[in-house]
Design goal:
By secondary structure, the chain is an alpha/beta fold. The chain contains 8 helices and 7 strands; from the N terminus they run H-E-H-H-E-H-H-E-E-E-H-E-H-E-H. It folds into 2 domains: 83 residues, no CATH class; 100 residues, no CATH class. InterPro entries: Aldolase_TIM (IPR013785), FBA_I (IPR000741).
Length: 198
């Protein structure tokens, strides 16, 4: 995909009046949601749930893109249409979550770094071939007493930059998501300071 093609996808994702549907819950996360309504979390039930979301009438009037989990990118509608193809046919751009979640940053109590760079050289091209047009990587930044440290911010910034470069090289638009968590007892002034630093 050329830079021009990447620009077209990026602009379409931020179309006025539309948003991006995050349907990228991992299997453990969606299991918790299913457990809360006493529903069994199987590959089939997860597929049916996501098909219900994607086939909602007029969804494309409000949704520009859909972030998928690896499992979902490889699934199909009941009639056998791969989800990325179905979404595209409805005017919604299929995307993929490529990070592997936030993990404890060794030797930095209370801080996290997002994992997933291992194997990332190959995955974006595979995801593109499966129909994804964009990708998402989330870096979690906790705010508290003495955190985030500069090291934590730099570690996550480095991962975000490598992810973005690899995605662009493979023809995927990268969504870079540094998320400053609002949890905790810090005030809005500290939150603004951290957000500006990050």
């Amino acid at each position: 995909m050329s830079v021009t093609d990447l620009n077209v996808v990026a602009r379409a994702l931020v179309a006025p009046g539309k948003g991006i549907l995050a349907a990228d819950e991992s299997s453990p996360t969606i299991k918790k949601r299913f457990d809360s309504i006493s529903a069994e979390s199987t590959e089939g039930s997860r597929r049916s749930y996501r098909e219900m979301l994607f086939t909602t009438p007029d969804a494309c009037r409000h949704i520009s893109g859909v972030i998928l989990f690896d499992e979902t990118l490889r699934q199909s509608t009941r009639d056998g249409t791969p989800f990325p193809d179905y979404l595209s046919s409805q005017g919604m751009i299929p995307g993929i979550k490529v990070d592997k979640g936030a993990k404890a940053l060794p030797n930095f109590m209370g801080e996290k770094v997002t994992e997933g760079l291992d194997g990332l050289n190959d995955r974006p091209a595979e995801y593109r071939d499966l129909g994804a047009k964009f990708a998402k990587w989330r870096a979690v930044i906790d705010i508290g007493d003495g955190i985030p440290t500069d090291f934590c911010i730099l570690a996550n910034a480095h991962a975000l930059a490598r992810y973005a470069a690899l995605c662009q090289e493979a023809g995927l638009v990268p969504i870079v998501e540094p998320e400053d968590l609002m949890d905790g007892d810090h005030d809005i002034v500290l939150c603004e300071e951290v957000t500006n630093t990050v």
